[in-house]
Write a structure and sequence with these properties.
The chain has five helices and six strands; from the N terminus they run H-E-E-H-E-E-H-E-E-H-H. The chain has a two-stranded antiparallel ribbon.
Length: 139
């Protein structure tokens, strides 16, 4: 399977050049955001547009081929947030210090698996929030 150049362009446009998991913007980043298989090919995922999203290098690295995690509140397995099927604002909230708060089991699990509240990532988002550049709303 291979993602075409046209598909990559389409996913970037659909995402507004924003990481669809942590909502940082591509603008000003040294590394180009990657088109991620939400369900990895090794788990039966395909190159169909509804299985692809745009991810920053950190989110893509931490997500890897994971499709789920254990909800820290319920202790139950839960699928990760799906940017093609779910609305970001339904699952995540931004606290005053730019920390993430999961409103739902999917949000909480995604925060844990993708390490969205690691100290360095929080500091980066807080600086962008103060500058009015976070969260990314598309470019």
């Amino acid at each position: 399977m291979s993602i075409s150049r046209e598909q990559r362009r389409k996913i970037r446009l659909l995402a507004g050049n924003c990481c669809e998991y942590c909502r940082i913007a591509q603008t000003g980043r040294l590394l180009l955001f990657q088109v991620d298989h939400m369900i990895a090919v090794k788990h039966g995922g395909t190159d169909a547009d509804d299985n692809l999203c745009l991810a920053c290098s950190e989110c893509n690295l931490y997500k890897g081929s994971n499709v789920a995690g254990i909800d820290p509140v319920t202790g139950q397995p839960v699928r990760l947030y799906d940017p093609r099927q779910q609305e970001w604002n339904d699952h995540f909230d931004i606290q005053p210090q730019a920390m993430r708060f999961g409103r739902t089991p999917e949000g909480r699990v995604t925060i844990l698996v993708l390490r969205l509240n690691d100290e360095l990532r929080v500091r980066q988002r807080f600086g962008e929030l103060r500058a009015g550049d976070y969260p990314c709303h598309g470019a």
